Amino acid sequence: MTTQKHDDYLLKSLITGDESGIKKIYAKMYPKVLAYVSKHDGVEDDAKDVMQKSLLQLSVRAQAKDFSITSSFEGYLFTICKNVWRREAKLSKSRVTNPKVIDLIHEEREIALAAYEQEKWELFQEKLHEISENCRKVLQFFFNKIPYAKIANELGYATENTVRQRIFKCKSKLKEAIHSDSRYKELKEL
């Protein structure tokens, strides 16, 4: 089975609730999600929640008629999982817990927020691929918190100051590309 056919099978399994396809998704993806969540201060129950919320979000989004995945199914789902965990981790840091209080976060609201964040991420990724390859490399190093001296050495820049200037210019180009897209205005209004 080709990669595209396999990806289509997994997505269709998720939408239709095909148990064997969903088991394949879990078998392939859950260990990766567990490793990611564990590495970022989570526990197994957190990973299970992230997996469930991510699958639910993906199945809801996949039912839209204009939905398509431009990367691999696994890459797309893993990105959703990472975004869900980041949001969960951020919420738990700001949430005061009391075991006697019932948490009133609604599942629909969670799905809507996750979909909103995924749309922002997809816009960011799309615009990142529209800027020059050199800018993508510079920003990739920057986003991965690589020291300026190492970036200068890797990309052949004369000084760290040159790297700072290049990062600023590339971030400005990316920001301009994102802001000029009509989807940005729609997402900003939400």
Poorly predicted tracts of residues? none
Q: How helix-rich are the residues, as a percent range? A: over 70%
- Cα distance, first to last residue? 41 Å
Category from helices, strands and their pairing: mainly alpha
Mean pLDDT: 82
**Mind describing the biggest β-sheet?**
none
- From the structure provided, what is the oligomeric state, counting identical versus distinct chains? single chain
* Content of β-strand: under 5%
Taken in chain order, the helices and strands follow as: HHHHHHHHH
Q: Counting H and I runs of at least 4 residues, what is the number of helices? A: 9
Instruction: Give the total of beta strands.
Output: 0
The value of Rg in angstroms is 19 Å
- Given the C-alpha coordinates, what overall shape results? globular
Structural overview:
The chain is an all-alpha fold and 190 residues long. The protein is built from nine helices and no strands. It has helices at residues 3-16, 19-39, 44-62, 73-94, 107-130, 133-143, 148-155, 160-179, 182-189. Helix 2 (19-39) packs across helix 4, helix 6 (133-143) crosses helix 8 and helix 7 (148-155) packs across helix 8 (160-179). The longest helix has 24 residues, at 107-130. The model has no long low-confidence stretch (mean pLDDT 82).
What key phrases describe this protein's structure?
mainly alpha, 190 residues, 9 helices
Summarize the topology.
Elements: H1 3-16, H2 19-39, H3 44-62, H4 73-94, H5 107-130, H6 133-143, H7 148-155, H8 160-179, H9 182-189
